[in-house]
Protein backbone atom coordinates (compact mmCIF):
# COMPACT_ATOMS: atom_id res chain seq x y z
CA UNK A 1 0.00 0.00 0.00
CA UNK A 2 2.73 2.44 0.89
CA UNK A 3 5.41 0.79 -1.31
CA UNK A 4 6.02 3.91 -3.41
CA UNK A 5 6.49 6.08 -0.34
CA UNK A 6 8.75 3.58 1.39
CA UNK A 7 10.91 3.26 -1.70
CA UNK A 8 11.16 7.07 -1.84
CA UNK A 9 12.13 7.26 1.82
CA UNK A 10 14.78 4.55 1.43
CA UNK A 11 16.42 6.56 -1.36
CA UNK A 12 17.04 9.53 0.96
CA UNK A 13 20.08 9.74 3.11
CA UNK A 14 19.76 9.67 6.88
CA UNK A 15 20.32 13.41 7.01
CA UNK A 16 17.53 14.18 4.52
CA UNK A 17 15.19 11.90 6.42
CA UNK A 18 15.98 13.66 9.65
CA UNK A 19 15.35 17.00 7.96
CA UNK A 20 11.92 15.86 6.76
CA UNK A 21 10.96 14.67 10.20
CA UNK A 22 12.10 17.94 11.72
CA UNK A 23 10.12 19.93 9.15
CA UNK A 24 7.01 18.01 10.01
CA UNK A 25 7.52 18.57 13.75
CA UNK A 26 8.05 22.30 13.11
CA UNK A 27 4.69 22.57 11.36
CA UNK A 28 2.87 20.68 14.06
CA UNK A 29 4.42 22.69 16.86
CA UNK A 30 3.70 26.01 15.08
CA UNK A 31 0.04 25.08 14.90
CA UNK A 32 0.09 24.18 18.57
CA UNK A 33 1.76 27.49 19.44
CA UNK A 34 -0.87 29.49 17.55
CA UNK A 35 -3.67 27.63 19.32
CA UNK A 36 -2.15 28.02 22.77
CA UNK A 37 -1.34 31.67 22.08
CA UNK A 38 -4.98 32.27 21.19
CA UNK A 39 -6.03 30.54 24.41
CA UNK A 40 -3.73 32.86 26.38
CA UNK A 41 -4.97 36.00 24.59
CA UNK A 42 -8.64 35.22 25.16
CA UNK A 43 -7.99 33.92 28.68
CA UNK A 44 -10.07 30.85 27.95
CA UNK A 45 -8.95 27.23 27.92
CA UNK A 46 -10.73 26.60 24.64
CA UNK A 47 -11.10 29.79 22.62
CA UNK A 48 -12.98 28.34 19.66
CA UNK A 49 -15.81 25.85 20.13
CA UNK A 50 -18.31 24.17 17.84
CA UNK A 51 -22.00 24.28 18.68
CA UNK A 52 -23.10 20.75 19.55
CA UNK A 53 -26.86 20.96 20.02
CA UNK A 54 -29.88 22.85 18.77
CA UNK A 55 -30.77 24.34 22.13
CA UNK A 56 -29.79 27.87 21.10
CA UNK A 57 -31.67 27.98 17.81
CA UNK A 58 -32.38 30.09 15.87
CA UNK A 59 -29.30 31.98 17.01
CA UNK A 60 -26.80 29.12 16.75
CA UNK A 61 -27.21 25.95 14.77
CA UNK A 62 -25.29 22.72 15.19
CA UNK A 63 -21.89 23.08 13.55
CA UNK A 64 -21.49 26.84 13.96
CA UNK A 65 -18.20 28.15 15.27
CA UNK A 66 -18.13 30.34 18.36
CA UNK A 67 -15.28 32.61 19.44
CA UNK A 68 -14.91 32.88 23.18
CA UNK A 69 -13.22 35.26 25.54
CA UNK A 70 -13.06 35.15 29.28
CA UNK A 71 -12.53 38.64 30.58
CA UNK A 72 -11.92 39.07 34.28
CA UNK A 73 -15.12 41.00 34.87
CA UNK A 74 -17.98 39.10 36.44
CA UNK A 75 -20.64 37.38 34.39
CA UNK A 76 -23.79 39.40 33.60
CA UNK A 77 -27.32 38.30 32.83
CA UNK A 78 -27.90 37.89 29.10
CA UNK A 79 -24.32 36.78 28.43
CA UNK A 80 -24.12 33.63 26.37
CA UNK A 81 -21.66 31.40 28.19
CA UNK A 82 -19.94 28.13 27.48
CA UNK A 83 -19.72 26.10 30.63
CA UNK A 84 -19.01 22.60 31.84
CA UNK A 85 -20.89 20.89 34.61
CA UNK A 86 -18.36 19.60 37.13
CA UNK A 87 -17.71 15.94 36.56
CA UNK A 88 -18.69 16.07 32.88
CA UNK A 89 -16.64 16.82 29.79
CA UNK A 90 -19.31 18.16 27.46
CA UNK A 91 -19.31 21.96 27.10
CA UNK A 92 -22.75 23.57 26.95
CA UNK A 93 -23.55 26.89 25.29
CA UNK A 94 -26.49 28.63 26.97
CA UNK A 95 -27.55 32.06 28.17
CA UNK A 96 -27.43 33.34 31.75
CA UNK A 97 -30.98 34.10 32.87
CA UNK A 98 -30.55 34.58 36.61
CA UNK A 99 -27.67 35.92 38.62
CA UNK A 100 -27.15 36.52 42.32
CA UNK A 101 -23.81 37.87 43.57
CA UNK A 102 -23.03 37.30 47.21
CA UNK A 103 -22.02 40.60 48.76
CA UNK A 104 -19.39 39.32 51.16
CA UNK A 105 -17.62 36.75 49.01
CA UNK A 106 -18.37 38.00 45.51
CA UNK A 107 -19.39 34.47 44.62
CA UNK A 108 -21.77 34.35 41.68
CA UNK A 109 -24.82 32.08 41.63
CA UNK A 110 -25.76 31.59 38.00
CA UNK A 111 -28.71 29.93 36.33
CA UNK A 112 -28.63 29.22 32.60
CA UNK A 113 -31.12 28.24 29.92
CA UNK A 114 -30.95 27.51 26.23
CA UNK A 115 -33.02 29.95 24.16
CA UNK A 116 -34.76 27.08 22.42
CA UNK A 117 -35.47 25.11 25.60
CA UNK A 118 -38.68 25.48 27.54
CA UNK A 119 -37.11 24.97 30.96
CA UNK A 120 -33.94 26.19 32.59
CA UNK A 121 -30.83 24.07 32.92
CA UNK A 122 -31.46 22.75 36.45
CA UNK A 123 -32.38 19.46 34.82
CA UNK A 124 -28.89 19.33 33.34
CA UNK A 125 -26.94 20.24 36.44
CA UNK A 126 -25.78 17.57 38.88
CA UNK A 127 -28.47 16.26 41.23
CA UNK A 128 -28.88 18.68 44.10
CA UNK A 129 -27.02 21.41 42.22
CA UNK A 130 -29.19 24.46 41.60
CA UNK A 131 -26.63 27.00 40.42
CA UNK A 132 -23.36 27.12 38.59
CA UNK A 133 -20.49 29.47 39.43
CA UNK A 134 -17.83 31.42 37.57
CA UNK A 135 -15.38 28.52 37.90
CA UNK A 136 -17.62 26.33 35.76
CA UNK A 137 -17.59 28.79 32.89
CA UNK A 138 -15.00 28.35 30.15
CA UNK A 139 -15.81 31.53 28.27
CA UNK A 140 -18.36 34.06 27.06
CA UNK A 141 -19.37 34.06 23.41
CA UNK A 142 -17.88 37.09 21.71
CA UNK A 143 -18.20 36.33 18.01
CA UNK A 144 -19.65 33.80 15.67
CA UNK A 145 -19.08 32.17 12.29
CA UNK A 146 -21.81 30.11 10.65
CA UNK A 147 -20.72 26.65 9.59
CA UNK B 1 2.25 22.07 -17.18
CA UNK B 2 -0.62 22.50 -14.75
CA UNK B 3 -3.11 19.72 -14.65
CA UNK B 4 -6.77 20.01 -13.79
CA UNK B 5 -6.31 19.07 -10.14
CA UNK B 6 -3.71 21.77 -9.56
CA UNK B 7 -5.90 24.41 -11.16
CA UNK B 8 -8.94 23.34 -9.15
CA UNK B 9 -6.86 23.44 -5.99
CA UNK B 10 -5.57 26.93 -6.76
CA UNK B 11 -9.06 28.22 -7.49
CA UNK B 12 -10.45 26.68 -4.34
CA UNK B 13 -7.70 28.14 -2.16
CA UNK B 14 -8.24 31.59 -3.67
CA UNK B 15 -12.00 31.33 -3.19
CA UNK B 16 -11.50 30.45 0.46
CA UNK B 17 -9.19 33.41 0.98
CA UNK B 18 -11.61 35.82 -0.64
CA UNK B 19 -14.57 34.44 1.33
CA UNK B 20 -12.77 34.85 4.63
CA UNK B 21 -11.66 38.33 3.61
CA UNK B 22 -15.24 39.37 2.87
CA UNK B 23 -16.61 37.83 6.07
CA UNK B 24 -13.88 39.53 8.07
CA UNK B 25 -14.66 42.90 6.46
CA UNK B 26 -18.36 42.47 7.26
CA UNK B 27 -17.56 41.59 10.85
CA UNK B 28 -15.35 44.65 11.24
CA UNK B 29 -17.79 47.14 9.67
CA UNK B 30 -20.92 46.03 11.52
CA UNK B 31 -20.26 47.62 14.93
CA UNK B 32 -19.97 51.03 13.26
CA UNK B 33 -23.47 51.03 11.79
CA UNK B 34 -25.61 53.59 13.63
CA UNK B 35 -28.61 52.58 15.71
CA UNK B 36 -31.04 54.31 18.05
CA UNK B 37 -33.14 51.86 20.01
CA UNK B 38 -35.65 53.01 22.60
CA UNK B 39 -37.88 51.30 25.09
CA UNK B 40 -40.16 52.08 27.99
CA UNK B 41 -41.38 49.79 30.72
CA UNK B 42 -44.06 50.65 33.24
CA UNK B 43 -45.04 48.34 36.06
CA UNK B 44 -48.77 47.87 36.40
CA UNK B 45 -49.03 45.41 39.24
CA UNK B 46 -46.91 43.27 41.56
CA UNK B 47 -48.14 40.51 43.84
CA UNK B 48 -45.99 38.44 46.16
CA UNK B 49 -47.11 34.95 47.17
CA UNK B 50 -45.28 32.30 49.10
CA UNK B 51 -44.90 28.77 47.75
CA UNK B 52 -42.68 25.84 48.45
CA UNK B 53 -39.86 26.01 45.92
CA UNK B 54 -38.17 22.65 45.44
CA UNK B 55 -34.65 23.99 45.43
CA UNK B 56 -34.80 26.29 48.43
CA UNK B 57 -37.92 25.61 50.47
CA UNK B 58 -40.66 28.11 51.27
CA UNK B 59 -40.01 31.12 49.06
CA UNK B 60 -41.73 34.29 47.96
CA UNK B 61 -42.73 34.39 44.31
CA UNK B 62 -43.43 37.72 42.65
CA UNK B 63 -46.03 37.97 39.92
CA UNK B 64 -45.54 41.06 37.85
CA UNK B 65 -47.62 42.71 35.18
CA UNK B 66 -45.88 45.25 32.97
CA UNK B 67 -46.46 47.47 29.98
CA UNK B 68 -43.70 47.28 27.39
CA UNK B 69 -43.31 49.76 24.58
CA UNK B 70 -40.14 49.45 22.50
CA UNK B 71 -38.79 50.49 19.14
CA UNK B 72 -35.77 48.37 18.24
CA UNK B 73 -36.13 48.62 14.47
CA UNK B 74 -32.93 50.66 14.14
CA UNK B 75 -30.92 47.71 15.43
CA UNK B 76 -31.83 45.71 12.32
CA UNK B 77 -29.16 46.13 9.64
CA UNK B 78 -28.14 43.83 6.78
CA UNK B 79 -25.92 41.84 9.11
CA UNK B 80 -28.52 41.27 11.82
CA UNK B 81 -29.81 37.73 12.03
CA UNK B 82 -31.99 38.16 15.08
CA UNK B 83 -32.47 40.09 18.29
CA UNK B 84 -32.82 38.44 21.65
CA UNK B 85 -34.91 40.76 23.81
CA UNK B 86 -35.62 40.35 27.50
CA UNK B 87 -37.12 42.24 30.40
CA UNK B 88 -34.61 42.38 33.20
CA UNK B 89 -35.22 42.99 36.90
CA UNK B 90 -32.27 44.22 38.94
CA UNK B 91 -32.13 44.74 42.67
CA UNK B 92 -29.91 44.37 45.70
CA UNK B 93 -30.45 42.74 49.06
CA UNK B 94 -28.45 42.76 52.28
CA UNK B 95 -26.68 39.51 51.51
CA UNK B 96 -26.38 39.80 47.74
CA UNK B 97 -25.29 43.05 46.14
CA UNK B 98 -26.12 42.20 42.55
CA UNK B 99 -29.22 40.31 41.55
CA UNK B 100 -30.34 40.12 37.96
CA UNK B 101 -33.32 38.09 36.85
CA UNK B 102 -34.77 37.75 33.37
CA UNK B 103 -38.55 37.87 33.58
CA UNK B 104 -39.57 37.55 29.96
CA UNK B 105 -37.77 37.06 26.70
CA UNK B 106 -38.52 37.00 23.03
CA UNK B 107 -36.59 36.32 19.86
CA UNK B 108 -37.16 38.83 17.10
CA UNK B 109 -36.28 37.81 13.60
CA UNK B 110 -37.46 40.65 11.41
CA UNK B 111 -37.58 44.42 11.41
CA UNK B 112 -41.39 44.50 11.56
CA UNK B 113 -41.42 42.46 14.75
CA UNK B 114 -38.95 44.87 16.35
CA UNK B 115 -41.69 47.36 17.12
CA UNK B 116 -42.80 45.80 20.38
CA UNK B 117 -45.95 46.78 22.19
CA UNK B 118 -47.13 44.46 24.92
CA UNK B 119 -49.60 45.74 27.44
CA UNK B 120 -50.06 43.10 30.08
CA UNK B 121 -46.75 41.36 30.02
CA UNK B 122 -46.61 38.69 32.71
CA UNK B 123 -43.31 37.29 33.90
CA UNK B 124 -42.58 34.13 31.94
CA UNK B 125 -40.14 32.77 34.47
CA UNK B 126 -40.34 32.39 38.20
CA UNK B 127 -39.43 35.62 39.93
CA UNK B 128 -38.00 34.30 43.16
CA UNK B 129 -34.99 35.47 45.11
CA UNK B 130 -32.11 33.35 46.36
CA UNK B 131 -32.77 34.64 49.87
CA UNK B 132 -36.41 33.40 49.51
CA UNK B 133 -37.88 36.77 50.45
CA UNK B 134 -38.54 40.10 48.74
CA UNK B 135 -38.75 42.08 51.95
CA UNK B 136 -36.97 45.44 51.70
CA UNK B 137 -36.34 45.10 47.99
CA UNK B 138 -36.63 47.84 45.36
CA UNK B 139 -36.28 46.53 41.85
CA UNK B 140 -35.67 48.40 38.63
CA UNK B 141 -36.86 47.02 35.33
CA UNK B 142 -35.13 47.50 32.03
CA UNK B 143 -35.09 46.06 28.55
CA UNK B 144 -31.97 44.14 27.57
CA UNK B 145 -31.19 43.04 24.03
CA UNK B 146 -28.56 40.96 22.26
CA UNK B 147 -27.90 41.61 18.61
CA UNK B 148 -26.89 38.43 16.80
CA UNK B 149 -25.17 39.08 13.48
CA UNK B 150 -24.90 36.72 10.54
CA UNK B 151 -21.14 37.03 10.90
CA UNK B 152 -19.15 38.84 13.53
CA UNK B 153 -19.14 40.07 17.06
CA UNK B 154 -22.15 39.73 19.37
CA UNK B 155 -23.25 43.09 20.75
CA UNK B 156 -25.77 43.91 23.42
CA UNK B 157 -27.50 46.90 24.88
CA UNK B 158 -29.81 47.87 27.67
CA UNK B 159 -32.15 50.73 28.39
CA UNK B 160 -31.50 52.84 31.44
CA UNK B 161 -33.72 51.55 34.21
CA UNK B 162 -35.31 54.49 35.88
CA UNK B 163 -38.52 52.97 37.14
CA UNK B 164 -37.84 51.65 40.63
CA UNK B 165 -40.62 49.86 42.43
CA UNK B 166 -40.76 48.45 45.93
CA UNK B 167 -42.20 45.00 46.42
CA UNK B 168 -45.50 44.82 48.28
CA UNK B 169 -45.82 42.60 51.33
CA UNK B 170 -46.80 38.99 50.81
CA UNK B 171 -50.45 38.33 50.04
CA UNK B 172 -52.27 35.08 50.57
CA UNK B 173 -53.76 34.38 47.23
CA UNK B 174 -53.50 35.53 43.65
CA UNK B 175 -56.09 38.17 42.82
UniProtKB/TrEMBL annotation, chain A:
The chain crosses the membrane at residues 21-41. GO terms for cellular component: signal peptidase complex. Keywords: Endoplasmic reticulum, Hydrolase, Membrane, Protease, Signal-anchor, Transmembrane, Transmembrane helix. Its main location: endoplasmic reticulum. Residues 41-141 form the Peptidase S24/S26A/S26B/S26C domain. It comes from the Eukaryota. It catalyses: Cleavage of hydrophobic, N-terminal signal or leader sequences from secreted and periplasmic proteins. Its EC number is 3.4.21.89. It is found in: Endoplasmic reticulum membrane. It is an enzyme of class 3 (hydrolase). Pfam families: Peptidase_S24 (PF00717). The keyword Disulfide bond does not apply. One of its GO terms (biological process) is signal peptide processing. It is a single-pass type II membrane protein. PROSITE patterns: SPASE_I_1, SPASE_I_3. One of its GO terms (molecular function) is signal peptidase activity. Catalytic component of the signal peptidase complex (SPC) which catalyzes the cleavage of N-terminal signal sequences from nascent proteins as they are translocated into the lumen of the endoplasmic reticulum. Specifically cleaves N-terminal signal peptides that contain a hydrophobic alpha-helix (h-region) shorter than 18-20 amino acids. Component of the signal peptidase complex (SPC) composed of a catalytic subunit SEC11 and three accessory subunits SPC1, SPC2 and SPC3. The complex induces a local thinning of the ER membrane which is used to measure the length of the signal peptide (SP) h-region of protein substrates. This ensures the selectivity of the complex towards h-regions shorter than 18-20 amino acids. SPC associates with the translocon complex. Belongs to the peptidase S26B family. NCBIfam families: sigpep_I_arch. This is Signal peptidase complex catalytic subunit SEC11. It comes from Gigaspora margarita.
From TrEMBL, chain B:
One of its GO terms (biological process) is signal peptide processing. GO terms for cellular component: signal peptidase complex. Its main location: endoplasmic reticulum. InterPro entries: SPC3. Keywords: Endoplasmic reticulum, Membrane, Signal-anchor, Transmembrane, Transmembrane helix. It is found in: Endoplasmic reticulum membrane. It comes from the Eukaryota. The chain crosses the membrane at residues 12-33. It is a single-pass type II membrane protein. Pfam families: SPC22 (PF04573). The keyword Cytoplasm does not apply. Essential component of the signal peptidase complex (SPC) which catalyzes the cleavage of N-terminal signal sequences from nascent proteins as they are translocated into the lumen of the endoplasmic reticulum. Essential for the SPC catalytic activity, possibly by stabilizing and positioning the active center of the complex close to the lumenal surface. Essential for viability. PANTHER family: MICROSOMAL SIGNAL PEPTIDASE 23 KD SUBUNIT SPC22/23, SIGNAL PEPTIDASE COMPLEX SUBUNIT 3. Belongs to the SPCS3 family. This is Signal peptidase subunit 3. It comes from Gigaspora margarita.
Amino acid sequence: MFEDEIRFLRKMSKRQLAQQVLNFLMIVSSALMVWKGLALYTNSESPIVVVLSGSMEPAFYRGDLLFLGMPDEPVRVGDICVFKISGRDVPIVHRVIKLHDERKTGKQYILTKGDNNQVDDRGLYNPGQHWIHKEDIIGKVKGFLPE
Amino acid sequence: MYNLLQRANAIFAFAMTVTFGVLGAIAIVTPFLPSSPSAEITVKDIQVISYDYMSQGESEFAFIKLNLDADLTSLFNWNTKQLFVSVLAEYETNSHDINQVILWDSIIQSKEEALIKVSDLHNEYNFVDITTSFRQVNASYSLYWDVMPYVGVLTSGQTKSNHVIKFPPRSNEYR
